[in-house]
Amino acid sequence: MNLPGESSAHQAWTDPEFRQTLRTGARRAHETGQADTASVDVLRRSGLLGMTVSTDHGGWGWDAAAANTVIEGVAVDNPSIAIMLYLHCAVVARIETYGTEEQKKHWLPRVARHGQLAASAWSEPGSSADKRSLSTDARRDDTAAWRIKGGKTFSTSATVADFFLVLVQLPATCETAHTAEPAYGGSDQALFLVDADAPGVHVPPAPLDMAGMRGSATGMVQFQDVTVTDRDMLCSGGATTEAIQLPHRLGLTLGAVSVGLAQAASDTALRHARDRGLLEDGRFRQQLALTEVAVRSARAAVGELTAGPAHDRVLRAYCVKVSTSTTSQTVCGTVRGFLGSSGYLHAHEINRISQDADAVMHMGPPTHLCLDLIATRLSSARPSGA
Ligand SMILES: Cc1cc2nc3c(=O)[nH]c(=O)nc-3n(C[C@H](O)[C@H](O)[C@H](O)COP(=O)(O)OP(=O)(O)OC[C@H]3O[C@@H](n4cnc5c(N)ncnc54)[C@H](O)[C@@H]3O)c2cc1C
Fold first, then answer.
1. Which domains does the chain have, with CATH numbers?
2. Is the CB of residue 358 below 6 angstroms from any atom belonging to ligand 1?
3. Ligand 1 center–CA 187 separation, angstroms
């Protein structure tokens, strides 16, 4: 794991003041349904937005394993901020891998030095999880620029993001070779980098009124004839489906958020047991131990993703997304039982944690799509020993 961690800036995510701001913000945002300004501010100032940016472009040069560790730690205190950070790192990784030198020089120092936040605008009302039926398109105009037109939804960080990575449909003539990898997205699509304040980009100020991850500024984005050029295109053709899959190839995973959520639920149970003097009660001891086993197993699965071999990492990443999100939901259920009626009060934090844990299952690729992608890979793989 490439985690320098020597300087105090690199330890920002373990700083007690940083953590307290995130914890307080998580509670506030869950009540209001608005992104918590103080939490977003400390995230920008922490330097963490640049943790995976290469040192050449002013970042810390951390790898996916280190990023997963930080994202898990942030998720313990504020899962909404953790998904914002995860999706931001996924955009950074795509720029690092697919960007031209000009694009890297333009976008990455803004992230690393100025705390700019990236968001992905891919999902649309009515588009399925595999993103194969998009209505947002990019068409050439008379000046050979592109015009992006369409509406996106469920874009995490939308209301506070500085720029978007936008997935669009290209005209049929632009189709290029299909990737051999079973993936999602299409080779007749492209990814463009678009400034949030570019003419024609409209973000309704109110985020979606979601059940969980209520502080994640997840909202809609309208692209009304937004003019971009080839220099703003990150990739097209088969590279689009590869770029969509990139976090899984690197081992950067939303599973880290689920582990953080499971840890937060388990911590809640331990605090309750301590406060009520239940630590010597045999029934509670067993339940507590089971949640610890579940959290540690999920963390090990996330760790193994980057430590293990690269050749089947994508398959393992889909498995980890499903297993960790299921684990966090199971741990939340166990802890709710453990807490009894006191946990049923609206204000009890286990309710926020549970709703946040449910949200991860719906995030891309959601469970049903992961299972499809796993089955596709299994059916094309040779049985071991054959
Ligand atoms: C908290 C949160 C944050 C998000 N952040 C972003 C973001 O930053 N950017 C972005 O672009 N999107 C984001 N999304 C959107 C997310 O990627 C989509 O919700 C996801 O892709 C699922 O799409 P869908 O709801 O259209 O699912 P659909 O594919 O329409 O599926 C809906 C339901 O149909 C059933 N179903 C469909 N197909 C199958 C199948 N083959 N097998 C079994 N059941 C099936 C399942 O029950 C499924 O849950 C976010 C969502 C959430 C909840």
1. 9-117 (1.10.540.10), 120-237 (2.40.110.10), 253-380 (1.20.140.10)
2. no
3. 20
